[in-house]
Amino acid sequence: MGKIKNTVLFLLLAYLLPLALQPSLLLDYRILFLMLAAVTVFLTQPGFEVEEAERDRTADNNSVIFILVLSVLAIAVPVIEWGYFHPERAHLHWIIVGGLIVIAGTGLRIWAIQTLGRFFTATVQIQEEHQLIQHGPFRHIRHPSYTGALLTAVGGAIVLESWFGLLIATACMLYAYYVRITAEEAALVSKFGQRYQDYQHQSSRLIPGIW
């Protein structure tokens, strides 16, 4: 039930409430496509309960809260800009480009989650039998699931041709994952020591060749 509850809450905050004064736009094919991508992501990742944030607050540094809040903003701001300021924009090339980015981001996130298996958690957790995964999407990127989420948010703004929203979405996601990666990598260095530091030198955090 956690997955269903989280999915419904996200759709409500990111799409339904932002378009409450323009309900007909909820049936626009672009919004339906973006909501389908969101549902796919939420149903293919572990559910999240508030108790996890309380339990893992020290290691997590509240990064899960930053991610949840800023992810909603990253989606809702482009939706609001599009829905109330230029719903008539529908340039096919931008829709295709943005759509392909959304599909790539969603696919990358699902691939990363499946590769991590039980080691993928909503909060920063180091399990007793934790393993350092360096294959699949983790070969060159240390946090490919976050890269996938970033691509999905950016692609969604492009689909809607929300250029101000694109800036906000990018800034929100980068900041949220900066906070998360800082906390997560501190925990991983504490667990794996030099082995993880070697991995850091051989890979990028989020964006290959940039950061």
Helix run count: 9
Kindly state the percentage of residues in helix: 55-70%
Low-confidence segments, given as residue ranges, are none
What are the secondary-structure elements, in order, as H or E? Answer: HHHHHHHHH
Radius of gyration: 17 Å
Overall pLDDT: 91
Task: Sum up the overall morphology in one term.
Answer: globular
Approximate strand percentage: under 5%
Total number of strands: 0
- Class per helix and strand makeup: mainly alpha
N-to-C CA distance: 36 Å
Largest β-sheet summary: none
Textual characterization of the structure:
By secondary structure, the chain is an all-alpha fold. Helix 1 packs parallel to helix 5, helix 5 packs antiparallel against helix 8 and helix 6 packs antiparallel against helix 7. The longest helix has 30 residues. It starts with a helix and ends in a 9-residue tail after the last helix.
